[in-house]
Specification:
Elements (H helix, E strand, L loop, with lengths): L2 E12 L6 E7 L6 E7 L6 E5 L2 E6 L7 E6 L4 H8 L2 E3 L2 E3 L9 E9 L4 E11 L23 E6 L9 E5 L7 H8 L12
Antiparallel strand pairs: 1-2, 1-9, 3-6, 4-5, 6-11, 7-8, 9-10, 10-11, 10-12
Length: 197
């Protein structure tokens, strides 16, 4: 699958220990900005049984341990707190021994070579808080943005609902519907209603 760019990531925060999504945050060109997403660990671990002095049987079932590394331009403290389990009160983000990251579902959006939209979903995982910051003085070439504080790493597992961990769809696939895909990844999420005048 060839991809062009990285347009958007959506985070669905699970409602406690359930696999129902209560809140969705979107990071895109209007809010936060996406830079890079690296997904690895989908391939199942292959285990080979040797017998009679030769490889006799190979087992490769399920998936490995999927990991997602995300770089964004400027994640808000509200989003970081919601994803990492930190608290955000009165404009202050706080992280401590009692901070517990919630389960999160993720949808990544990119473009394909057919000028179609490609969506990748990870169904259940947890992110840690950004690992730190890298503050530097400006030099004669001007100030450069540091995005260390907007980088996240997450690990994912199969959800109990259906035993699945990953999904992918693209708008050029026959029968693909993004709203159905979103409902599948963000199980039970109800879009907030916008009051009419």
């Amino acid at each position: 699958m060839a991809t062009l760019g990285f347009e958007e990531v959506m985070f669905g925060i699970h409602d406690g220990d359930t696999e129902t999504i209560k809140t969705v945050y979107t990071v895109n060109a209007q809010e936060g900005g996406t830079i890079e997403a690296k997904l690895q660990g989908l391939q199942a671990q292959a285990n080979t049984l040797y017998a009679s002095n030769v490889p006799f049987f190979v087992s490769a079932v399920g998936t490995g341990t999927p990991k997602l590394d995300l770089d964004t331009a400027d994640l808000s403290d509200e989003v970081i707190a919601a994803i990492s389990g930190a608290t955000f009160e009165n404009g202050i983000i706080k992280l401590g021994a009692d901070s517990v990251a919630p389960y999160v579902s993720v949808i990544l959006k990119t473009k394909g070579l057919k000028d179609d939209d490609i969506y990748i979903g990870l169904l259940k995982g947890k992110f840690g808080h950004p690992d730190g910051a890298d503050l530097k003085t400006s030099e004669d070439k001007g100030m450069e943005a540091d995005t260390t504080d907007s980088s996240l790493s997450g690990s994912f597992v199969s959800r109990k609902l259906d035993g699945l961990v990953y999904a992918k769809g693209r708008t050029s696939n026959t029968g693909f519907d993004f709203q159905q895909f979103k409902s599948f990844v963000f199980n039970g999420y109800v879009e907030p209603t916008i009051p009419t005048a």
